[in-house]
Amino acid sequence: MSLNNSSNIFLDSVPSNTNRFQVNVINENHESCAAANDNTDPPHYEETSFGDEAQKRLRISFRPGNQECYDNFLQSGETAKTDASFHAYDSHTNTYYLQTFGHNTMDAVPKIEYYRNTGSISGPKANRPSLLEIHEQLAKNVAVAPNAADRVANGDGIPGDEQAENKEDDQAGVVKFGWVKGVLVRCMLNIWGVMLFIRLSWIVGEAGIGLGVLIILLSTMVTSITGLSTSAIATNGFVRGGGAYYLISRSLGPEFGGSIGLIFAFANAVAVAMYVVGFAETVVDLLKESDSMMVDPTNDIRIIGSITVVILLGISVAGMEWEAKAQVILLIILLIAIANFFIGTVIPSNNEKKSRGFFNYQASIFAENFGPRFTKGEGFFSVFAIFFPAATGILAGANISGDLEDPQDAIPRGTMLAIFITTVAYLGVAICVGACVVRDATGNVNDTIISGMNCNGSAACGLGYDFSRCRHEPCQYGLMNNFQVMSMVSGFGPLITAGIFSATLSSALASLVSAPKVFQALCKDNIYKALQFFAKGYGKNNEPLRGYILTFLIAMAFILIAELNTIAPIISNFFLASYALINFSCFHASYAKSPGWRPAYGIYNMWVSLFGAVLCCAVMFVINWWAAVITYVIEFFLYIYVTYKKPEVNWGSSTQALSYVSALDNALELTTVEDHVKNFRPQCIVLTGGPMTRPALLDITHAFTKNSGLCICCEVFVGPRKLCVKEMNSGMGKKQAWLIKNKIKAFYAAVAADCFRDGVRSLLQASGLGRMKPNTLVIGYKKNWRKAPLTEIENYVGIIHDAFDFEIGVAIVRISQGFDISQVLQVQEELERLEQERLALEATIKDNECEEGSGGIRALFKKASKLNITKTTPKNDGSINTIQSMHVGEFNQKLVEASTQFKKKQEKGTIDVWWLFDDGGLTLLIPYILTLRKKWKDCKLRIYVGGKINRIEEEKIAMASLLSKFRIKFADIHIIGDINIKPSKESWKVFEEMIEPYRLHESCKDLTTAEKLKRETPWKITDAELEAVKEKSYRQVRLNELLQEHSRAANLIVLSLPVARKGSISDLLYMAWLEILTKNLPPVLLVRGNHKNVLTFYS
Fold it and tell me: GO molecular function: any one (predicted)?
């Protein structure tokens, strides 16, 4: 429903109910409907009331005479048109205003449509006005699209009318269930399964009344804790189809959800077999009594079971509505059967029943049956394993969560009430049957007490019957021997048989519905791509017919086992694994302390949930340790598989929340510990711009920060702040996603600034968190410095000065081809776009080949226009001209290859470290870290240091000793004794020619002219400056000669970065130093630490 601010409207909340949040929409139009109806009431203003009622739904009522106004307000579900008294568009900007609380504003009042997910089945999603639309100046910055009034009035982002109507039509025939029919009935039927009628008496006989009650209570404790956890998770947001899988996956993430989803769906499929086998056993017993066996008991169970599961499949495929009707009928039969049993316990027993061990309520029988009497091979936990599947039906309602009207209300209420009712029934039956029936009976009415016989405390003997021969030979009756005890005890035996049929068939039917529903939800999430085939649904209720067939095949396979006691422990382990994860999900979500964890169902405790998870795991191993091991191996394998595949989903799991909390706690804990040199690691800010535009720079940095240090890819947006911020915000997610996709362990950060240097300065000061702050700035060498504007050079050198001011080390990387491949990327994007448009056009033409006449041509142009196959207007004429002039085969291949050179495994060679100045050891540490990487492990370190010619050997020994103390392996050490000699005339001439365009030559001019030139061009290199640092200039040129001589064949050169003293070295002279120093060499990494120790030889 969409509300428009049309005239003549007054809406009011229901005055009689003050327990709701009420907002009255007020119209300020003077020509209101109230006036038209002679309503003299004074104007009403906004009224609000607050209450604690749980369900706060909007109600609309009308003041006298306003019903007609409301009818005019909503015409056929559409917003009414505004009249001339209220203009939908501002007279200056054509910007649409909504009228909120009686004032012209674009601000929207809170409503549920803004909080729905895209594609929500509960209603359309609307987009509230963005902060930009509200914050920016309307006259200049808010562009209004065509039909903006209708768009805003109806909620931006709401699907079109046609689409909305189609959704309503689709929902019209969908069957939804309330908490009774959808959850309570299903859970009770599934819990009251085969165990109630044909195994509970045997369990009491084996374990006794005391331990039997304990088994029931232990099972109930497991299921009750799980029910509480399920209720908490189910009420923490909207629940869709998928039951346990949906709850676990949305809480713990796809890794846990995907692994347990398969196991849980499989467990439900096997449970179908278990219940059907129970039904078949009862039928076979009836056939035995009437001597109508078909083959033999085992094969008869298989035959009857197969026929039964086919019939159940037919009911399920017919649709949920038919299945629900069948469940209600089966519950009525089941309740009558249970009541029939309790009535039968008080009907006086006859001789035939007494001979079979039934004596009505007797204290002696109760006392005799209170303690356990396990037969050979049985024990407490083996009996518990047989009974526990009777409690596994608690998720029958949750498993069809997608078919419930209100899962958040239905699942907690129906599940917990079903657990309570069924537990009371189990306890009542166990105690009653234990107080009425002896463990062993012969069934012979003549086995009465002979006078003078010693009873030895036997309850049956005290009641006049001698069943002592059952100690030496097997008997057919009694709790221990007869699975049909409840039929014998009941008032009317056939009703118990009907109850057995009802219980087993209803449980089988519930499991047959649950398994495909859970499996379909798992497949829809596309966690296992190979199973996508089973995601398809059919009909109004999206029935998983393919899942039904798969469940049928699994059930048939296990029916062939035909042994209930063999199937039950397997089911126990699978369901216990599911319950353990549900409990752990509740604990984990609570422990993560995410603000999004706000379950409406508050009767839970995180530690109780954890205890329930541990209890489930312990019970699994006690019941059947090898089955538990197999279950967890399968779950672990599936977990690893899903983790490896990394499905592209984000459900806001508690794992994410806990990761955040752990990261925050660890970051805070780091701040309490002083930095130590042994724990130093390079933590780098890399000025890559967009990370994809300078991949080589990022790769070399990532090589020595991966898994050891912080790496932040930084970009500075320079220009008008508004445009920069918009561009920056729109690209943040895309660029971080690029890093993740390319498996680069780095962060992306960006700032908008008036100039490049200011942006970098902000990054240097504000990046990082606590101790995880950058200590090294990595930048690419400015290759085009001689052609660049002076401001760019000043900014480039300035950021180096700023880094040193902030005591941050600097690393400058130079490769022959440069780093920036943005032009290549632009060409590739353009070609990809053109290729996509070509394919789209071909598809459109193909679709219209069958159409004839002008209609087909019109359709073609219509579809082509929708595809927007037009020439894109370029933002920059120069760049687009470059694109249009370039051919695919004319890409700068050398640039592309250079951009990937650090991704490849480096050939066997050397990393030459020219450690000329002691900067604390960073110049040595970085290349050492590189040699630890797989791609650089074949490169050996060669160390070059300066020294005196007459002390080369001594200094070589001293350096080797220092490196050995640092525990840094090296291939060779070279002492360079001739660094400070003058370079060759040819090399010096190259340097002079390089700086010639930037020299002032003030010594050749008169003093006045020289002073004037200094004022006009302060950036130029003066003769005085050049003379003052002539020795340093000689050193840079000479070093290049030495590098050419010794390291021309190295894979990488790591070299001490010369420092330009502020105020003494001009920017252009410093750039000339860097240029001549690294000219015509392999990749060079210039490094200068912050002159604090990063290496130590102390332990």
Answer: sodium:potassium:chloride symporter activity
